[in-house]
Amino acid sequence: MAGRAPMDLAQARFSIDLLRLLKEKTEGNRTLEETRLLEGVLYDLQLRFVQAAGRG
Fold this sequence. Notes:
Elements lengths: L8 H17 L6 H24 L1
Helix pairs in contact: 1-2
């Protein structure tokens, strides 16, 4: 893990929750491209979070 930042799962969970809130509050006000990007980022972060939490 040389050169990598230490994992902070609490901060990761906060960031995921914040993006979920952003998704909820902007519903109906996003373009299709913005929706796809937001959903893709959320999916990827959630997957990585579960993987990291399983290792720790």
